[in-house]
Specification:
This protein is mainly α. It has 18 helices and no strands. Helix 12 (220-232) crosses helix 13 (238-268).
Length: 376
C-alpha cells in the first residue's frame, strides 16, 4: 500500500533500510502501519498499563501510566508530523514503543537496576526497549522480536552510550559519528518531552504535591496560560482551570515546535533523508519557548520529582529492585523456567530482562513471594 505523498526528506518504505528479516510487503497498509500494529499487539505494550510514570500504580487510578503517556505522545507526535508532511505512522510507532523497555517504578527502578547491572554491562532503558522489539517478544514463527523497520528501531533508540553504540553496528553508528536520526524520530522525542512535562504538571497538582499557585509564581509558561484561561472564563477554578491551563500550554508548545521546525527545514533545505542525517537538529522549539520549558523542568525536578513523598516511594522501589536482583543472581533457580537465560544470554542479563519486564504491582508481589515467610 503506497504512502501518502510526503516531504522528500521524510521516511518512506522506498528510502527505508528495511527489516532484518525480509517479509512480504503488506497489501492494505504501509510498512510502518505494520510496525505500529505489531507494537500495540505486543506483550510489553500491554504491561505499560501498570508501569509508573511518576506515581506508583497503587497510589491512584487517575495518574498517568507508561501506557497513557505513550498514547499521549503518539497523539501529539502525529499532529506535528502531519503539519510537517512527515510519516505519521512512523512517528506513532516510535512513540508507542519508546518506553517498552522501562522498568517498574519509573526512573527509580531504572537507576536501581543499572546499579545492580554495573558489573554486567549496565542497564539503559532505551537499549532495553530495543532489546524488547529485537529479541524478547516471541509472537512470530520466523524470528525473535517484532522485526520492525530500521527507522522505527532507530527512533526507539534515542539515547545510547558509545560502548553500546559501537556494539550495535549500523544502528549505533549515528551516535559514534554524531549523525542525526530521521525527522520522525526527532518529532517523537520532542512530543515525549511535551507530554511528560505538561502531564506531570497535571498529575503533580492532582496529587497535592505541587500547586497551581506555586507554578504560576515560579514559571512563566504556566503563569501566562493560567492567566489566559482565567480571562477567557472568568471565575474558572480548580480542576477546570488546571485542564484549561495545561491544554493551552500543549497547544503553544506544539504550534511553536511546528513553526520553528518549518523555519529550520527551510534554511537547511534538505532534499533527502540522507541530508537530514548530516544536518543539525531540524526539529525544535524557538529559543524563548525552549527557555520556558527548561524553567518548568527545573521547577518539576525540585518540587515534584524530589518531593519527600516521591523520594520515599523511590527509595522503596529501589530496594525492591535490588532485593529481587540480588536474590535471583545469588540463586538463579528461583527464576521460573520460562525466564531462565536463553542460549547466548548471560544470567545477569536474563534477570535484568525479567525484572525490567515487571509491572509495578508484579514486582511488589514477587518481592513478597521471595521474602515474606507466609507467601508461596
Amino acid at each position: 500500500m503506497p504512502e501518502i505523498t510526503l516531504a522528500p526528506y521524510a521516511v518512506t518504505a522506498q528510502n527505508s533500510q528495511g527489516r532484518k528479516h525480509p517479509e512480504t510487503e503488506p497489501r492494505e497498509r504501509t510498512e510502518f502501519q505494520r510496525d505500529l500494529h505489531r507494537i500495540v499487539h505486543s506483550t510489553a505494550f500491554r504491561r505499560l498499563e501498570y508501569k509508573t510514570q511518576v506515581f506508583v500504580n497503587h497510589e491512584g487510578d487517575l495518574f498517568r501510566t507508561r501506557l497513557t503517556h505513550s498514547i499521549e505522545v503518539a497523539q501529539i507526535g502525529r499532529s506535528i508530523a502531519r503539519a510537517l508532511n512527515l510519516n505519521e505512522d512512523l512517528v506513532e510507532a516510535i512513540s508507542l514503543a519508546h518506553d517498552l523497555g522501562h522498568t517498574p517504578f519509573g526512573h527509580a527502578g531504572q537507576d536501581a537496576l543499572n546499579h545492580c547491572m554495573k558489573k554486567f554491562g549496565g542497564f539503559e532503558h532505551n537499549m532495553q526497549s530495543l532489546r524488547v522489539v529485537d529479541k524478547l517478544e516471541d509472537h512470530y514463527g520466523g524470528f525473535d522480536g517484532l522485526n520492525l523497520m530500521y527507522e522505527t528501531r532507530e527512533g526507539v533508540l534515542k539515547h545510547c552510550s558509545l560502548k553500546n553504540a559501537r556494539a550495535l553496528g549500523p544502528l549505533g553508528e549515528r551516535f559514534v559519528k554524531k549523525l542525526r536520526p530521521s525527522l520522525e524520530a526527532q518529532v517523537a522525542n520532542l512530543a515525549d518531552e511535551i507530554a511528560y512535562n505538561n502531564h506531570d504538571v497535571d498529575d503533580g497538582i492532582r496529587s497535592h504535591l505541587i500547586t497551581l499557585d506555586d507554578l504560576r509564581a515560579k514559571t512563566k509558561i504556566v503563569s501566562r496560560h493560567a492567566q489566559d484561561a482565567s480571562k477567557a472564563y472568568p471565575g474558572i477554578k480548580d480542576r477546570r482551570l488546571v485542564h484549561e491551563t495545561v491544554r493551552r500550554m500543549i497547544n503553544t508548545l506544539v504550534t511553536d515546535l511546528i513553526v520553528e521546525s518549518r523555519s529550520r527545514i527551510a534554511k537547511a533545505r534538505p532534499a533527502s533523508l540522507e541530508d537530514v542525517h548530516h544536518a543539525p537538529p531540524l526539529i525544535g522549539f524557538s529559543a524563548a519557548i525552549a527557555g520556558e520549558q527548561q524553567e518548568l523542568k527545573h521547577f518539576l525536578m525540585e518540587n515534584l520529582y524530589r518531593h519527600y513523598r516521591v523520594m520515599r516511594m523511590s527509595a522503596k522501589a529501589g530496594r525492591i529492585i535490588t532485593d529481587l536482583f540480588d536474590a535471583l543472581i545469588g540463586e538463579p533457580r528461583l527464576l521460573a523456567p520460562q525466564y531462565r537465560p536463553r542460549k547466548g544470554t548471560e544470567p545477569a542479563r536474563a534477570i535484568a530482562d525479567y525484572i525490567a519486564g515487571m509491572t509495578d504491582r508484579y514486582a511488589m508481589l514477587e518481592h513478597r513471594r521471595l521474602f515474606a515467610i507466609d507467601e508461596g
